[in-house]
Amino acid sequence: MITEKPRTANAGFKLIVGASAGGHATELLILLDAAQGIWPIEPSVYITTMQIAAEGFAKRGKPVHVIGECDRRKPLQAIAVLFRTLWLAIQERPDAVVTTGSMPLAIFCLWAKLLGAKIVWIDSVAQCEEMSASGKLMRRVADLCLVQWADVAARVTNVEYAGEVL
After folding, report:
1. Phi/psi at 122 (nearest 5 deg)?
2. Which of 165, 161, 98 is CA-nearest to residue 125?
3. CA 114 from centre of chain
4. Residues 141-151 as b or e (16 or more Cβ within 10 Å = b)
5. Strands 96-99 and 15-19
6. Do residues 121 and 144 touch, judged by C-beta distance below 8 A?
7. CA atoms of 64 and 46, how far apart (whole Å)
8. Cys staple from 18: which of 47, 67, 104, 125, with CB 3.0 to 4.6 Å?
């Protein structure tokens, strides 16, 4: 019988963080800067949707994967992202994923969750009246789902408010 070696404090733990290009990436980069030295482990890999955002993450000295953009109005692009994110989730096998969202990152999170990862979803600060479509899905899947508006948290189940990133 093969037994899994117990993990020491963070040995072998793989944290992946990701965000779509634009405001999502800006929020995540601000959060990473503010939390530097506070998180128990630094990210191992970054994921984003466009090359322009990859440059901001690449400055952190870890691998960056570009998975592509898609939304519910672009089904062919969504299919491409579906397969790219499946391959990436299998290849990287994260233990945890932290993301500020969008549909492509939600798809990656679903694959990662199926492979046993813990998911932290932070819905965008732009969602001041209700959660994003991806956030509404992920609040049912994520181990921790955060919104950045106390009023939204008061009206929605399975979410928490812990402040704003911006």
Report:
1. -115, 105
2. 165
3. 15
4. ebebbbbbbee
5. parallel
6. yes
7. 5
8. 47
Three-class HEC string of 1-42: CCCCCCCCCCCCCCEEEEECCCHHHHHHHHHHHHCCCCCCCC
Residue 42 CA to residue 6 CA, distance in Å, equals: 20
Of 41, 54, 52, 33, which is closest to residue 11 (Cα–Cα)?
41
Q: Packing angle between helix 51-58 and helix 23-34, nearest 10 degrees?
A: 10
Q: What is the pLDDT along the chain (166 residues), one digit of tens a residue?
A: 444 444 445 568 999 999 999 988 998 999 899 888 888 889 999 999 999 999 999 999 999 999 999 987 888 999 999 999 999 999 999 999 999 989 999 999 999 999 999 999 998 766 667 777 888 899 999 999 988 878 877 888 888 888 667 6
d(CA 144, CA 85): 21
**Angle, CA of 48, 13 and 101, to the nearest 5°:** 25
SS (H, E, C) 46-69: EEECCHHHHHHHHCCCCCEEECCC
